[in-house]
Design brief:
Blueprint (H helix, E strand, L loop, with lengths): L15 H9 L1 H13 L3 H12 L13 E2 L4 E2 L6 H9 L3 H6 L1 H18 L14 H7 L5 H17 L1 E3 L2 E3 L28 E2 L7 E2 L11 E6 L4 H8 L10 E3 L6 E3 L6 E2 L9 E6 L11 H18 L8 E3 L17 H10 L7 H5 L4 E8 L3 E8 L4 E8 L7 E9 L5 E7 L2 E8 L5 E7 L2 E4 L8
Parallel strand pairs: 5-9, 7-11, 7-12, 8-11
Antiparallel strand pairs: 1-2, 3-4, 6-10, 8-9, 13-14, 14-15, 15-18, 16-17, 16-19, 19-20
Helix pairs in contact: 2-6, 3-8, 4-6, 6-7, 7-8, 8-9, 10-11
């Protein structure tokens, strides 16, 4: 099964001088040589590295999950791609950790070995789309849906192109062959405390089941930087060897949020503050400002504002703190590149949609599922047990009060789709249909982001 990854940026046209400069760049040359040595598509190899590290080797320092270099070769109790790369390339582990060229060669070797294990033929190796299962396997994620998040990020990088550290990849559309990942489960948002978040459970070793705020008051929100990628952080928190987790993880590119520990439970993320706080991890590294996008700030601030409102936490820097501020910690995150002024402005002045999906759909309707539309909004599916009706409402999170393109739709299996689409100030909908015991398809759009569900919720 193939899913189109669309070009999201204009074509990057390289002059002859730029091409010469790229060829003279040691890192660019390393990708060329590694790709040729192990018959891995060069642009795909770059995309994997960029999704992992933004091509930053972090001077040989490891990520939180024990990954090294631009290719994030991992050495931890569950994953040993660093050691595998050493065997495949006959290069010392120390060199693979700190030398960019060796690290890239090691990453290419590991990718090729995984491709061979999955039976990728010589002809298929020429097709970047055929590498999707191999790329997903490179993540060593604990669950298929997390591996899919990782692979999708790589192919989105291919679609957008790369221009970093003298390494260039032109934007290109690729049809990835999803293979077994086509049916990777989508975790229902109904399991989360924050509407629109995905749900992926952390390993039980990373938190303690609790009864907050009844047992312990929640009066702090702790901001972390993960020292790793979004998918890698989610996967690490699923690893029993980690023995750590945060309540939420936020993605750099679009602000997507995954909840991993219920707020009532004590996540092991901030030492002395574990009992009293909710922890939010952010994809990225403290020494690289490129990870801290406006989309991430806005999405995280909306989450922080929501948590603060629900628990009565004052929206100030005494109660919304960095990990570095936790008593007794040896951590430095979120680090000097985190813009607290921008972040707190979004937390305190970001406002919010004055309407709720329950208000839009009417009395008796309760949210049973939600999906984030990037940072622009959230589409909600509601159900009324009294009359068997479903309702869909798309709630805007940005451009509030301004009429912008927004839509919501609901389709009962076997019936025509109903849609509410137009330029709306706060929401699209309600779109209602009676569907007792019948599957429904639902979704919507806000800004440039859209969501389309499969037929599901067949029992209401």
């Amino acid at each position: 099964m193939k899913a189109k990854i669309l070009i999201v940026a204009g074509l990057l046209v390289m002059s002859g001088q730029q091409a010469a400069q790229a060829a003279e760049n040691p890192l660019s040359d390393a990708f060329d040589k590694a790709a040729a040595t192990y018959d891995v598509p060069r642009d795909l190899l770059v995309a994997v590295a960029y999704a992992e590290s933004r091509l930053d080797g972090h001077a040989g320092e490891p990520s939180a999950s024990g990954g090294y270099g631009v290719m994030h070769l991992v050495s931890n109790p569950a994953t040993h791609t660093l050691e595998e790369a050493a065997k495949l390339t006959a290069k010392p582990v120390a060199e693979l950790k700190s030398d960019d060229a060796a690290n890239v060669l090691g990453g290419a070797a590991v990718l090729r070995a995984q491709a061979d294990a999955l039976g990728l033929s010589a002809a298929e190796r020429k097709d970047a789309g055929a590498w999707y299962p191999t790329v997903a396997a490179y993540s060593h994620a604990a669950a298929d849906d997390t591996a899919k998040i990782y692979a999708d990020a790589v192919y989105e990088t291919l679609a957008g192109g790369v221009d970093a550290r003298g390494v260039r990849v032109r934007p290109q559309a690729v049809d990835p062959d999803l293979g077994e990942y086509a049916e990777a489960p989508r975790r229902l948002a109904a399991a989360t405390d924050y509407p629109g978040a995905r749900w992926v459970a952390a390993n039980a070793a990373g938190y303690a089941v609790s009864d907050r705020p009844a047992g312990d008051a929640i009066d702090r929100i702790v901001i972390h930087v993960a020292q790793g990628t979004y998918a890698g952080t989610i996967s690490w928190f699923q690893n029993p060897a980690a023995r750590v987790a945060s309540h939420y993880v936020v993605r750099s590119s679009d602000g997507q949020i995954t909840q991993m520990v219920r707020e009532k439970d004590r996540a092991f993320h901030a030492g002395e503050y574990n009992r009293r706080s909710v922890g939010i991890e952010h994809e990225g590294y403290v020494n690289n400002a490129s990870w801290f996008t406006d989309q991430m700030y806005r999405a995280s601030a909306a989450l922080t504002r929501n948590i603060a409102d629900r628990y009565g936490i004052p929206k100030n820097r005494t109660h919304i703190v960095g990990h570095v501020q936790v008593p007794g910690t040896d951590h430095t995150d979120p680090g000097p590149h985190w813009n607290w002024t921008t972040y707190m402005n979004y937390v305190t002045n970001g406002g919010g949609n004055p309407h709720t999906p329950e208000e839009v759909c009417g009395s008796g309707f309760k949210v049973i599922d939600s999906a984030a539309l990037g940072t622009a909004g959230t589409v909600h599916l509601l159900y009324n047990t009294a009359n068997g009706q479903n309702c869909v409402a798309t709630m805007k999170l940005t451009s509030l009060g301004q009429a912008t393109a927004t839509s919501a739709y609901l389709e009962v299996q076997g019936s025509a789709r109903k849609t509410d689409s137009g330029d709306f100030s706060y929401y699209a909908g309600p779109v209602k249909a009676t569907a007792p015991g019948t599957c429904v398809k639902w979704g919507g759009k806000a800004g440039a982001s859209a969501y389309d569900s499969p037929f599901e919720h067949c029992g209401g």
